[in-house]
Design brief:
Blueprint lengths: L14 H35 L5 H8 L1 H23 L7 H27 L1 H10 L10 H29 L10 H41 L14 H30 L1 H10 L5 E14 L1 H7 L2 H21 L3 E6 L2 E6 L8 H17 L5 E18 L2 E7 L1 H13 L6 E4 H6 L2 H4 L2 E8 L6 E7 L5
Parallel strand pairs: 4-6
Antiparallel strand pairs: 1-3, 1-4, 2-3, 4-5, 6-8, 7-8
Length: 464
């Protein structure tokens, strides 16, 4: 300002202005502290105690930043009004220039205060949003924040500069000969400094949560479980965070159901069902069947507690399952104290018979190590129907054919033999030469429920 336009700048350095400055600073500090404490204390109380907020407490937590912004701007607005009234007699428009400058500073300070407060309150907002989303208070989104920053630190300064130029040109409250370079320079510097800082805060309010989502996505790609992001926004960014967590929860639930599905019906059957859909269908194919039947399970149930019998069966079945799966077979079903395993369905194998015979040779020595367990193992090979059997709303994957019945009858017959394992002549005939050398034909017999004799073979003594 110059003496011939807006008066001597020393007019501002009056005792009244100095007293007003000190009084307003003290009053603003007291008001900000007291009203701010009243605003945040109830929220800090439940947050520090680790309690879930009520809907009312949640709304209060979401409104801390807007209320603090209003409180801060109000102190600046009151200061602008006081200084304007104190300097009305200064002449040259000093009062209006001072009031406008203070008001513009208050807008900038309140805007930055809102962004800083919102950033500092992320843990509290996250706890509030985690408790419930039904009473969510919507906050300004990305577009609204960017428009606000542009308006405050680009639009308003440009309007201010335009008003200064127009005021000098028309002599409204600034003389036409008054230099305005200083005022324009102050507006430009303030808008540049505060605008840059505010833009950085807005950019980080967007980039930080998006960066957390990106890191969580990478963790999911690496196979990490239990991944989630904190929801500390109630704008569209918060909805992105919340939706990402919902998506991860859905994926985890789907994987859990797939795992349970695989445990009940087998991984291969589960994968086959997901690929083929819900149709009741199947096909006829060559497959090998291995049947393992426990001896004396009825007596075990009568002489031992149920928990002990269940523990024994689980140990027995675990060995069977591990051995069958190691040779690319499928546990088709558990039938009380018996196990039906299939080789060649639903996944096709180069030589199902060889895989089944190799499984039997590896299985028998392991089962013999179990105390108080006797069993019989039967293997057969032939054409079977493999597919879904049942109704449209309830079915299971199974195999049907003479090979299944023959394997079960051979398992019964094997219980009375020292080797405890028998394979049919058809299974041995379909096996390759490397596997066939481990088996020897022992004879033939008419199995229960059949009219023709079945050739059977046993492993040679040192083949296991």
């Amino acid at each position: 300002m110059s003496r011939n336009t807006v008066g001597d700048a020393r007019q501002l350095l009056t005792q009244a202005n100095l007293i007003a400055l000190i009084a307003l600073m003290v009053a603003a500090a007291i008001v900000d502290t007291v009203v701010g404490w009243v605003n945040v204390h109830p929220t800090f109380k439940w947050f520090a105690a680790g309690e879930d907020p009520t809907p009312r407490q949640q709304r209060a937590a979401m409104r801390i930043a807007p209320r603090q912004t209003i409180i801060q701007f109000t102190t600046w607005a009151v200061s602008a009004l006081v200084y304007t009234l104190l300097n009305l007699d200064a002449g040259g428009g000093v009062a209006y220039v001072m009031g406008g400058a203070i008001l513009f500073g208050g807008v900038a300070a309140a805007c930055m205060g809102f962004l800083v407060t919102q950033r500092m309150l992320r843990p509290i907002v996250a706890a509030s949003l985690t408790a419930s989303s039904s009473t969510m208070v919507r906050m300004p989104g990305v577009l609204a924040r960017l428009i606000t920053i542009w308006t405050l630190f680009s639009g308003l300064p440009m309007v201010g500069i335009a008003l200064i130029v127009l005021a000098r040109s028309n002599g409204w409250f600034v003389q036409k000969t008054a230099p305005v370079e200083a005022a324009v320079l102050v507006l430009a510097v303030v808008s540049l400094i505060f605008g840059l800082r505010s833009m950085v805060l807005v950019a980080r309010s967007v980039s930080d949560p998006i960066g957390e989502v990106v890191l969580a996505m990478k963790a999911v790609e690496r196979g990490w479980s239990g991944v989630s992001v904190k929801v500390y926004e109630s704008s569209e960014i918060g909805r992105l965070q919340y939706g990402f967590n919902r998506m991860l929860a859905g994926l985890a639930e789907r994987n859990r159901l797939r795992d349970l599905f695989g445990r009940y019906v087998g991984v291969d059957v589960a994968r086959h069902a997901l690929q083929q859909g819900t149709a009741v269908s199947g096909d006829v194919r060559d497959a090998a069947v291995l049947y393992v039947d426990l001896v004396g399970s009825t007596a075990l149930g009568a002489s031992r507690p149920p928990q002990e019998v269940a523990q024994l069966l689980n140990g027995f079945f675990k060995i069977v399952v591990d051995t069958v799966e190691a040779h690319h077979g499928l546990i088709n079903k558990f039938e009380g104290d018996a196990v039906l395993a299939v080789f060649g369905a639903p996944l096709r194998l180069d030589n199902p018979a060889s895989s089944a015979l190799a499984t039997a040779r590896a299985l028998v020595p392991r089962l013999h190590r179990l105390p108080d367990v006797e069993f019989g193992v039967g293997i057969s090979c032939g054409s079977v129907f493999a597919g879904n059997i049942g109704a449209e709303n309830r079915y299971e994957y199974t195999v049907i054919g003479d090979a299944v019945n023959e394997a079960a009858r051979l398992a019964d017959h094997a219980k009375d033999r020292e080797s405890t394992v028998l394979c049919s002549g058809s299974a041995l005939a379909h096996a390759d030469a490397d596997e066939g050398q481990h088996w020897v034909v022992r004879g033939s017999t008419v199995l229960r429920g059949r009219s023709t004799a079945t050739v059977f073979a046993e492993p040679v003594a040192d083949s296991s």
